[in-house]
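This part of the workshop introduces the protein records we will be handling. An example says more than a description, so a record of this kind follows.
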Amino acid sequence: MANNDSTRGSDSEPGPSSATVDFIADSASNPLALEIDWNTTDNDSAYGDEVSTYTSSITSSVMDFPEIEGRRYHAYRQGRYALPNDEEENERLDIHHALIYTAMEGRLFYAPIGQSPQRVLDIATGTGIWAMDFADEFPSAEVLGNDLSPTQPTLFVHQSLSSTMLTQDSVPPNLEFIVDDVEDEWGYEHQPFDFIHARFLAGAIRDWPKLMRQALDCTKPGGWVEFQDWDTFLYSADNSMPLDSAINRFHQMSGGAREAMGYSMCPGRHLQRWMTDAGFINISCTKILLPLGTWAKNRQAKKIGAYNLLQMQQGLEGILLGTLPHAKPRPWSKDEIMVFLADIRKDFQNPKIHGQYDL
C-alpha cells in the first residue's frame, strides 16, 4: 500500500492516500514455498465451474466488435488490448476473479479504507464483477468502473462527449460503468476518489509511470490506491520446467510480441518503484503464490492451482490469437497457433512441472 501525502486544498494534516501493491519479486530470489504432492496424477482435478454470461446494449460505435479467427475483440480503441471480449473470455475473467478472491482468503482488497468510502474507481473493470461485489459490500460508496469493452451487465445507455455511461437495474444502484481508455487523461482531479483499485493490467499499459501519476492526482488526501499485478511469465522454483518447454516458448513468443508493441508484461516487480517515483508514501507490498495446477500438497493451494489452470487453459487461445498473428519478424498462421496451443496445454497439465506465479 502507498500513501498520497497530498496537502491539496486541506488545512488539516492529510491522512494516508494509499496504493496497495501486490508486489512481484524476481522469481530467482523467491524460494519454493509450496510443498509438492508427489501423488498427483495427470487425471487430478479439483476444478470448479463458474460461468457468467453478460449482455450489453450500447451504441454501435463501441459494440461493432471485430472478429479475428472466430474470436471477438473490442471496438473502442481497437487493438489496445490483446485479449478477446467475447463470452468465453468473460467467463475466464469471472473464474480469474474467483481465483484471486480465494487466494486473498475472501478479501476484495487489502487497503485499510474504512467502513464508509465515498468515491471508488475500478480501473479496467472487465466484466465488472469486482466492482459489483464492492458496491454490494459498501452501499455508501459511489463506485465507477471503466473499461475499453462494454461487456458489463447493462441495459440503459447514456452518452456524453467524453464517455459512455452504463446503468442497469440488475447491478447495484451505486455502481456505474464507463467505456474509457485509462491511458487517456482522466479528468477526475476535481472529483477525486477515496479508493482506486486496479487488477492485472500486465500487457495492457504502455506508460505505467503516467498511470501512477494520474492515480495520485485523482486520489483524495487520505485515500488509497491498490494495484494487484504480476510477472506474467510462469516459473518453477524447483527447476522442474524445462527450458525448451512449450510454456517457455509461449512466454517468449506471445509475451515478446506484446512487449515489442510497447506493453510491459512484467509490471508487478516495478510497482513499488513506480509508486515511490509518483509521490505515494506508506507503500506496502504483499506477495501471494499462485500455483498452476494441483501439484501442491496443501488443500487450499490445490484449489487455487485448479482455478488458475482452468482460467489459463480457457484464456490461451485468445492470448495467442491476439498476439502471434502480429508477431515480428514473421506472423503466425492459425494452423501454427493451434498446434502450439495444444503443446502448451499439454505442458500446463503435466504434474511434473511445478509452475507458479507470484501475485
Remarks:
- Residues 6-32, 43-66, 74-79, 155-169 have pLDDT under 50 and may be disordered.
- The chain has one domain: 2-358.
- The CA atoms of residues 160 and 178 lie 10 Å apart.
